[in-house]
Design brief:
696 residues; 28 helices; disordered N terminus; mainly alpha
């Protein structure tokens, strides 16, 4: 089936309301079941808002058009912001809010399925942008030294598009495992928040006077509080975003002498994220962070204080003792986290080998001609056929191989080695990316991509591809893998949202490809435009920082010119992951904490502690459950409000509006104000879970 007929079949007649008259139009429930976020008991089933036996509007001209518009707009905005400051905002929640807003304004009935499709197509923007900007701008950065390295629209587009398509195809076989079989075992923070946004629109529309309206009011109030809180910090800088131990004299001495520092990000969005993650996983993540910041960083300073410690791939020019804790973390300790993530991923792959084998076996069985599987499957459990996935995966890999051979390396041997390496890494680490998103809501894609670049450099150099040609090849390979892993993490969020709400997974999967192509084309054009307008060369005045791409360039250049990698640090992290697994401690959560900065991990623990407090303070179990559900709504509101206002703040800065006083932010009093505001925010959260409890 060609592309035109595929699109025509997908859209034909679905925009006509009369087509649904002869179908079973069951009402959409207005409240998630009480077992939505907990593990199911033996024999218990989860029933989504949209009944598996019903048929609802999902894919039509309205949802596809709005999804494409969202993908284009958010790809452009996220690309600029990511290249400017290194932060790619999560697009799912803002897009969900906009989808609900436009469907409400247009008075569309039964719009829940449509809104999920809009969000799913549009959310491709964040995934593709993260995959592209973490690696491909490094080509422009290195062009100053190596003029023969050339980046054009086709290279950027193909790397992003092929990576995104592979990420989608490689993840689909694992959908049922992550979203259904592991029901209630993973917190899925971003998916939870996005789902709550979409659910509240149904609640308010169906019964505004009762629990639906009450839940919507709670969510909207929390979004307003959290959004305004984060907005005044990001836009006006009324107080500092972080509180650190340096605010007092002895804290400054500890940081300078002992390399001990405490940091916490005081944003409402991260607090909400911690609440949804819960105390268990938040504790493991924070322990990993404290292990790095309070043991490894001071330990390195103590052992090698006056030495310039140069390891393979780390060419330091400053003595360890003269570095700040932050510099020691970025230069050395973070690599231990990367090794830990890689080994935790390998352990996860080994443990999940039965799932991988079953998925591949089922695909092979269906490829041989098994029929009737789709007809017997409930609508809410229906995926693209394994026959299609197998053929599409082979086609995408073949196209990637041709792209490597004729468009990048111009050598058959190099292209064969490259496609084998990319296939193995992308497929195996798909489950790692999905696991990370399911646990902490943050994809360690930059760490896994850095490991990919190092492996690609070592392997490609061993077969004779090095120098500037080797750098270009490794960066393109890294771009494909980075986008694939980023897309896998993004897509598992979409599929979990669809599972909770009751959409058709097959339709989400089909139209995710369109969102990927649109986002890849937008990112390619925006990146070239920004390079011509601002540039990425660090020696060029007014250049875009592109911090991740600069880091990738700094790592790959010496390796392709004969230097090594910090294998010792990676090995320490890998050994630590093995020990943690032996002790039955979640190694991936711990390693994520070692890689993500301290200030972003501690508030997860605070949010998890708030979750524990509000769900245990009453002797009445039913009261605790109601408070916990209300807390989830408040946390989702904080995340949604913070994400949406973060986009608004970025657009204002893009327009030249930036009243933040750097002198005030450098004043310790700004951090004191930050702590006071944060404590008041926590007090509001706890108080709001208790007052006017929602009736079930």
């Amino acid at each position: 089936m060609n592309t035109i007929s595929y699109i025509n079949n997908g859209l034909n007649g679905l925009n006509n309301r009369s087509n649904f008259k002869n179908m079973e139009e069951l009402e959409i429930k207005s409240q998630l079941p009480e077992n939505a976020f907990r593990e199911l008991k033996e024999g218990e089933q989860y029933e989504p808002l949209m009944s598996p036996q019903g048929t609802y509007p999902e894919v039509n001209a309205w949802s596809v058009t709005w999804g494409v518009v969202m993908a284009m707009l958010f790809s452009a905005a996220a690309a600029y912001l990511g290249l400017k400051v290194g932060q790619v905002f999560e697009a799912a929640i803002p897009i969900a809010i906009i989808a609900v807003g436009v469907s409400t304004a247009a008075r569309r009935s039964r719009a829940l399925g449509e809104n999920v499709i809009i969000q799913s197509i549009g959310a491709c923007s964040g995934a593709v942008v993260a995959g592209a900007i973490f690696t491909l701008p490094a080509i422009y950065i290195l062009q100053a030294k190596y003029p023969d390295m050339q980046a054009d629209f086709l290279k950027i587009f193909m790397a992003s598009a092929l990576g995104g398509i592979l990420g989608i195809l490689f993840l689909i076989p694992f959908r049922k495992y992550f979203v259904s079989e592991m029901h209630g075992k993973y917190p899925f923070p971003e998916a939870t928040a996005t789902t709550q946004v979409l659910v509240q629109s149904v609640k308010s529309a169906s019964n505004p006077s009762r629990s639906g309206g009450a839940g919507g009011a709670v969510l909207m109030a929390a979004a307003l509080v959290g959004g305004l809180y984060d907005f005044v910090v990001a836009t006006f800088g009324w107080w500092n975003e972080n509180f650190t131990s340096r605010v007092i004299g002895w804290g400054e001495v500890l940081a300078d002498k002992a390399k001990l520092v405490f940091k916490i990000n005081t944003s409402a969005a991260v607090l909400g994220l911690g609440y949804i993650i819960g105390l268990k996983y938040a504790l493991y993540i924070t322990l990993g962070s404290l292990c790095v910041w309070w043991l490894i960083v001071p330990g390195l300073a103590l052992l090698f204080g006056d030495q310039v410690l140069s390891l393979g791939g780390v060419e330091a020019t400053t003595a360890v003792g003269a570095m700040s804790p932050e510099e020691i973390f970025k230069t050395y300790a973070r690599s231990i986290g990367i090794g830990g993530i890689a080994m935790a991923g390998i352990i996860g792959i080994i443990r999940s080998w039965g799932i991988i084998r079953n998925a591949v076996g089922l695909a092979a069985k269906e490829m041989k001609g098994s029929k009737g599987i789709e007809a017997e499957t409930q609508r809410t459990q229906r995926d693209l056929s394994f026959r299609f996935i197998g053929i599409a995966s082979l086609s995408a890999l073949l196209l990637t191989f041709v792209f490597f051979w004729l468009g990048v390396m111009h050598n058959l041997l190099f292209a064969v080695v490259a496609i084998l390496l990319v296939t193995v890494i992308a497929f195996l680490f798909t489950t790692v990316a999905a696991n990370a998103i399911a646990i902490v809501g943050s994809n360690p894609v930059s760490g896994m991509t850095l490991m990919t670049l190092i492996l690609a450099s070592v392997v490609m150099a061993s077969v004779g591809l090095n120098g500037s040609e080797g750098m270009l090849a490794a960066l393109i390979m890294g771009g494909v893998v980075c986008t694939a892993l980023s897309m896998a993490g993004c897509f598992i969020t979409d599929l979990k949202i669809g599972y909770w709400l009751g959409t058709t997974p097959k339709k989400q999967q089909q139209w995710k490809f369109l969102g990927t192509l649109v986002s890849a084309a937008t990112v390619g054009g925006v990146m070239m435009l920004l390079n011509q307008t601002y540039g990425f060369d660090p020696n060029q005045e007014g250049h875009l920082v592109a911090p991740q791409a600069n880091a990738m360039a700094a790592v790959i250049e010496p390796m392709m010119n004969g230097a090594g990698a910090p294998w010792l640090l990676y090995g320490i992290g890998a050994l630590l992951a093995i020990v943690l697994t032996w002790l039955k401690i979640p190694a991936l959560a711990f390693a994520l904490g070692m890689f993500i900065p301290l200030e972003l991990n501690v508030p997860l623990l605070v949010g998890g502690a708030v979750n524990w407090f509000v769900t245990t303070r009453s002797a009445d179990k039913a009261v605790n459950e109601r408070r916990g559900e209300k807390g989830t709504l408040i946390a989702s509101g904080f995340i949604a409000g913070g994400a949406l206002m973060g986009v608004v703040s970025a657009l204002l800065r893009f327009g030249g509006f930036n009243p933040v006083s750097e002198a005030w932010l450098a004043n310790p009093l700004s951090e004191v104000c930050s702590l006071i505001a944060y404590l008041l925010l926590i007090a509001y959260f706890v108080y709001a879970t208790k007052t006017k409890e929602m009736s079930r």
